[in-house]
Amino acid sequence: MASVLFVALTLAPLLAPCVFVVAAAALALRAYKRLPGSGWHMPSVTTCALVSVMAGAAAFGAYAWGVMSGFYILDPDQLCAARGLQGDHIVTRESLPVSAQCMTSDGVGSELVPTWVNPVIFTGLTLFVLALVTGTATEIRRRLSLR
Questions:
Q1: Which region holds residue 21: left if phi is over 0, alpha if psi is between -120 and 50, else beta?
Q2: Domain limits at 104?
Q3: Which of 63, 86, 99, 123 is deepest in the core (most CB within 10 A)?
Q4: How far is it, in rounded angstroms, from Cα 68 to Cα 65?
């Protein structure tokens, strides 16, 4: 199970942008086919599903990028030295918000995760939840109106 998770985290930064682009293209095609001047209405369940796929792909891809940016195989000192940091190091990690820091024996830390990762994760998760709630509300309203 751990190896499957490792492979998913390794491939997510490569595959998530592809999933995002395909969902965005499908969403753009739906918007293009929509009748002009038809006014505003609640988005369909399919539209909400496409938005949730896009947001989920962005959030998972950013999370995987952040987790893998502080990944090391051999030694924390080699990872920190590869980033141009001198001295003895201990790598500290946090899962959410994603953080990996090279801490020197003096207590000086240097963040290894890019600054854009956590805002993309939290924005993506928020949009993911909003799209799911909106899609569910739309489907409930549709079923109640059919009665």
A1: alpha
A2: 73-112
A3: 63
A4: 5
